[in-house]
Design goal:
Layout (H helix, E strand, L loop, with lengths): L13 H8 L2 H12 L17 H31 L3 H27 L5 H8 L2 H15 L3 H26 L2 H31 L3 H27 L3 H17 L4
The chain binds fe (ii) ion (2 copies).
Length: 259
Amino acid sequence: MAHPLERDPHQLPPESFLEEVHSFAFWFDAVQGYLGDLEHGHRRETPEAVLSPLEREHLVTVLCNYCVGETAALEGAGGLIQIAPNRHAKVFLATQTVDEGRHLEVLTGRLRELGVEDPEAEIARRGSRSLQEFHRRLLELVRGRDWIAALFAQNVVLECMEFAVFALHAKRADPRTCEVLSGIVKDERRHMGFGENELGRRLRDAPYARERLRAVRQELDALVLGSFEETMDAIGTPRADRTELGSHYLAAVARLGFA
Ligand SMILES: [Fe+2]
Ligand SMILES: [Fe+2]
């Protein structure tokens, strides 16, 4: 039998597709290819870059904000398991919860490598208020058992935000941070795919739900863009570079068909 990654699951009928792709076996085959030999999310031999005090300070602030986002994703994905409408979605979200826990762990590990002794305290001190508000709103949607809106907030808005920020940052980051982020981005792509697929099917069956998502998006976009601004203020990003991040995020959401 072909290796799971050599088969194209898109050729399968819908039920078999879900059975195949939303399984721990598929997840394990997907992640072992790029996580197998890593330690704290990067290769053991990758050297630590020499950073100036200011560069280190900026990197710590940015990583603390990633930890706020990943904590929201961890709690959001875990909470969504309770309200997911079927076994396939519950199993996928269980794999996603594991991914998000790993993301939080490797990012916290990166903070420790940079000399942060108490990452939790540092994350609380440096985390953007907009991102913390996003976290609160996401959990409110989950607690309200609003499957479509909560899944949209988690697997479209939050995932697109993380995907845009990490992919852009990885291009410019020091070698260790770049490897950590590149591994995370591969997982986030899978999470975005799940959101797109699940919501795409729902919207075909209930097109009126699109209006609801538009309202949720309007509210959450403001928090996402606000969190970019706050982080860029904290790290002193020049005006000219700021629009790139926002437009990356908006393009990622549009690519999933939620413009
Ligand atoms: Fe994540
Ligand atoms: Fe994710």
